[in-house]
Amino acid sequence: MFSSTLTSVSTRNSSAELERLANAIDTADAIVLGAGSGLSTAAGFTYGGERFRRYFADFERARGIHDMYSGGFFPFATEEERWAYWSRFIWVNRYTEPPSPVYDELLALLRGRDYFVLTTNVDHCFQKAGIDRHRLFYTQGDYGLWQCSEPCHRGTYDNEATVRAMVEAQGFTVEDDGALLPPAVGEPAMRVPTELVPHCPVCGKPITMNLRADDTFVEDEGWHRAATRYQDFLRRHEGARTLFWEIGVGGNTPGIIKIPFWRMTAANPHATYACLNFGEALAPSSIANRSILIDANAADAIHRLAR
To answer: pTM for the complete prediction?
Structure first.
């Protein structure tokens, strides 16, 4: 259906498109927001550069890892070293505040409106900004949850207390606001104590992240309740004046947000599709006249909308 031509942002005026989006937000009966990794990047949750070196310089020197994402696939020799890496990764991307207030400003735009958020992000930023959890479906997991690697059962486990113990055992300090500070003197340890290495409380096998990577991903009861609420929201607003607003969604998993938003906009003549994406603001030509395309940094565009 959408395999032919795509309309790009190249022929559109960005200021005019931003005004169209502001009007669409104000006049919509319902807003379905789809958030991808570009939104968290705009919030300052970057995986490379200075932010990576601040917490992982030792892993870069010793293991040749140059960004947080690729480090997640490194074949560490021991579980103690693997969890030293992952505990830092989890803490700085799940239990600290993002540098930019973009999530707070975005939720301020939605406050008082009938909305639902579908996100592939796993960093808990919507929850930290205070979203009503009944209006959120995080499809791909959560850095704050663990599961059995088998998995022998369909449960998940909060990891905050253990992860905090892991980073502190490496010499880091956790500030009152959650910020993670490297040791003032010397290098952090690149391993955690063996007694902190997590195992499944049911079968004893290794624990792993509750992140969708293959068919072992656990969709627990909370996941299924959120999925049901999302489908209920779509059913209640079928045919309504709905804004399907996509932010920072790339091409890695288009079947979760992008293509469904295109299809639902095409099926509903009263719907509008909006794409806010730096460098990749596109829409099918079949819905071009009901599409708003903004090629901009999400933090900048949302800040302008919030003002």
So the answer is: 0.94
